Amino acid sequence: MPTVLLLGAGSDMAIALARKYASEKYDVQLAGRNTKALEPLMQDLQVRYGVNASVHAFDATDYNSHASFFHSLPVIPDTTICVFGYLGDQATAQQNWQEAAQIIHTNYTGAVSILNIAAETYEKAGKGTIIGISSVAGERGRQSNYIYGSAKAGFTAYLSGLRNRMAKSNVHVMSVLPGFVNTQMTQHLKLPPLLTAQPEDVANAIRKADKGRKNVLYVKWQWKFIMLIIKTIPEAIFKKLSL
Amino acid sequence: MQKRLSNWGNYPVITSEENAFTQEDQLKRYVAAHKGIIARGNGRCYGDASLGKNNVSMLRYDKVLAFDVQQGILDVQAGVTLDQLLEIIVPKGWFLPVTPGTKYITVGGAVASDVHGKNHHVDGTFSNHVIDMDVLLADGTVMTCGPDRHTDLFQATAGGMGLTGIITRVKFTLKKISTAYIRQSQFKAANLDEVLRLFDEYKHYTYSMAWIDCLQKGDSFGRSILIVGEHATPEELNAQQRKAPLTIPPKRKLVVPFNLPSFVLNKLTVKAFNALYYAKNYKKEMHKVIPYEPFFYPLDAILHWNRGYGKAGFVQYQFVLSLDQKEGLVAIMKRISEKGWGSFLTVLKVFGPQDSLISFPMEGYTLAMDFPVRKGLFEFLDELDEIVLQYGGRLYLSKDARMQQQIFWKSYPNAQAFADIVKQYNPEARFESLQSARLLLTK
């Protein structure tokens, strides 16, 4: 059976991904900081889908531990999905470096650190899939969330570069750019229903795109067009908008 | 976040805070920091029992922790819905010990409402099959309770409408089946006396209920169709079904896409519907083997059927009277029939004995019917309440959106004992719903 590794397995999106892949008979490795909190999901995957599931301690910002974490996994995963992220609070992050650093390091530095290691392994093996969950927020900086957005922009650029490098090694890299997703990370926000995906929608879209070896996936197709418009607004006008 | 929330009756509709959690420590943090909390499952109770100031959605607290396929024991987080469990257990030869008429409810909701099914006279309520469960209390601790430990908490939580705390985990026993099919028999009854006689005649059947036409008068007063069933054995299946006795072919679902205008359901259409339904049973007796879904969940086949009652919503009125109060049953049905506001689908069932602190059932007759919300309805239901009370009956809290507090206190014999336990575990109304505030259970 193939194996999928979910980095940041505690989030709603990760739960949905774990179930989706398990429903297609993938063994699932759940990695996150709070391993005890991941146990119910591990049991759930075993009971519902009859697959092997395991829990592994992983901290996105503890870079020194990343190599030993990845190499001590019981099985090298066929697919590595980088789900973790930290939305943070823009207003706080503007004044408080702690918050800004956490946003940057969780969404960018930590992701680069762990995916570098997975990429090395996959390149040598000549196979493997890396899926990175970035965000449409990284497509253009906006005053309401540019610290998170810039970290995700960095991650999006990293993924496209990695895809370019890996193309000749038969390693597939997919960038996922969800718009709004109805999760615990966003439940305090008022989101427009038509543009907001459920975590299960995101998981289904990712699995389908993964099978089709798609390079860049926008979840909720409308976002592709919204971001196209947002990206084409001239900067002289854009800077005056309150976005 | 502030959301518009309502339950299955679409009455009342409130704008209130709702948050969801997937992990126990998140739940604990939330409970420590808030008051006026009420746990919410899939919103299939009809009234205001799971509506409050700070609603905690349990729908993502839905992990299946263990399934002992040999013993038939499930251990689950409380937010998982019965439909998800059926998909797991039926193929392995197990069924829910008790199920209400919809599978779109959570296990936590099943315990909090202590739901009953067509097998109440044989198997009791859902909580009769609970081995143990965890409740997150107002002081932030998680207490494991069951029929053999912390029994006060267990009794006040089974049917306790979420007022003792948040049910987070439930372990319960399942029922062994050898096929996913039901051997069903239907009997046409010309009137109330006949259907009650038939209930008695077929009480050895595990499952029984009747559709009853509340709009008929005179000789056909209470004409009904009694439906009884047993889990089918492989020998009772046809050759096609026998190939995979525990799998049923998937079926497409119909959806009522939006609220129908309220004139769609008036006395005339209800009468027409009932007449058609009665006529559909053209024979006095009908026997067939059918998949479990249409037997237990006929209305689940039409998603959002509640929208059929229009934007104003509806109230479901369900009461129970003890076996010796048949005249009360007649009196109430007559009152409903005279008023002519009656309902589309009226269900009659005979409960078996029930020994519990606050659960709804008692040995006797229970009738459930829908009333679209309209001017004068609540006054009329207040009148009905008085008759129910007069005959020693009571109303189902899971259906209730409007009962006056003195009716509750007079009709539930253990109301005070229940309130005392609630107060002990939930002293400062940390857990409170619109219903509990209205009934003065947490005020």
TrEMBL record, chain A:
Determine if Hydrolase is one of this entry's keywords: no
The terms describing its cellular component in GO are: membrane
Pfam families according to UniProt: adh_short (PF00106)
Keyword Coiled coil appears in the UniProt entry: no
Q: Which UniProt keywords apply?
A: Oxidoreductase
What is a single molecular function from GO for this protein? oxidoreductase activity
Question: Sorted alphabetically, which PANTHER family does this protein's record hold?
Answer: DEHYDROGENASE/REDUCTASE SDR FAMILY MEMBER 7B, DEHYDROGENASE_REDUCTASE SDR FAMILY MEMBER 7B
Matching NCBIfam families = PRK07102.1 (NF005489)
Tell me its family. Answer: Belongs to the short-chain dehydrogenases/reductases (SDR) family.
For this entry, the protein name equals SDR family oxidoreductase
Organism the protein comes from:
Chitinophaga terrae (ex Kim and Jung 2007)
TrEMBL record, chain B:
Cross-referenced PROSITE patterns, in alphabetical order?
Answer: FAD_PCMH
Can you give the residue ranges of the FAD-binding PCMH-type domain?
11-177
Gene Ontology MF: a single term: FAD binding
Under the heading Pfam families, the entry gives:
FAD_binding_4
Protein name in the entry? FAD/FMN-containing dehydrogenase
The species is: Chitinophaga terrae
Taxonomy of origin reads: Bacteria, Pseudomonadati, Bacteroidota, Chitinophagia, Chitinophagales
